[in-house]
Amino acid sequence: MSRTSRLALCCTALIVAACAKKEAPKDTTAAMAPAAAPAPAPAPALAAKDIAGNWHVAATPTTGKDTSATEFDLAATADSADWSMTFTKSKLKVPAKHSISGDTLTLSAGPFASQRRKGAKVSTVSTLKLEGGKLVGTTTAHYQNAGPDSVVTLRTEGSKAP
């Protein structure tokens, strides 16, 4: 190959290299995931002293024909002693055990004479949280010797008595 041909080839290569499109640098900001939102603060731990006092509570079945509320007054103390539930209509007073784990209150009572089913015995377990100054949650009622209708779930809400 002659010197002129080599020179022409080198010049052509330089021109092609100079005119070639260069790739834009990759945008690394788009590939980065947005920062995750901080996790919400955990609900403050509940204590018996937060609930101590008298509460008016209504428990309403979530299903079935009879959706009338069963009402009772809950007398809660700031210590580990049993609390009591006094049913509004019958004035039946029932001891209730309580436990608190994190922000959840569990209240267990029974067996006692059912306020919803004449002649039946029932045991209840309520799982409640303190929301906006109210006790809110669910109650599960277990009826003794009731066959397939032995469990009823109730929506439960209580307001502190003045």
Describe the model:
With 162 residues, the protein is α+β, with helices and mostly antiparallel strands. The chain has a domain at 48-160: Beta Barrel (Lipocalin). Helix content is 15%, strand content 44%. It is built from 3 helices and 8 strands, in the order H-H-H-E-E-E-E-E-E-E-E. The protein has an 8-stranded antiparallel β-barrel with strand order 1-2-3-4-5-6-7-8. It is elongated and about 115 Å long. The termini are far apart.
Topology:
Elements: H1 3-19, H2 28-31, H3 48-51, E1 53-61, E2 70-76, E3 83-87, E4 93-101, E5 104-113, E6 121-131, E7 134-143, E8 151-160
Antiparallel strand pairs: 1-2, 1-8, 2-3, 3-4, 4-5, 5-6, 6-7, 7-8
Properties at a glance:
Lipocalin, single chain, 15% helix, 3 helices, 8 strands, 162 residues, alpha+beta, eight-stranded antiparallel barrel
Please give the order of strands in the largest beta sheet: 1-2-3-4-5-6-7-8
| Second rung of CATH, namely the architecture of the domain at 48-160 | Beta Barrel
Assign the CATH topology of the domain at 48-160: Lipocalin
Distance between the termini: 108 Å
Strand content: 35-45%
Provide the structure class.
alpha+beta
Estimated helix fraction: 10-25%
Low-confidence stretches: none
Q: Helical element count?
A: 3
Query: C-alpha Rg, in Å?
Result: 35 Å
Task: Count all strands and give the number.
Answer: 8
Given this structure, which CATH class of the domain at 48-160 is correct?
Mainly Beta
Largest β-sheet summary:
8 strands, antiparallel, barrel
CATH homologous superfamily designation of the domain at 48-160 = Quinohemoprotein amine dehydrogenase alpha subunit, domain 2
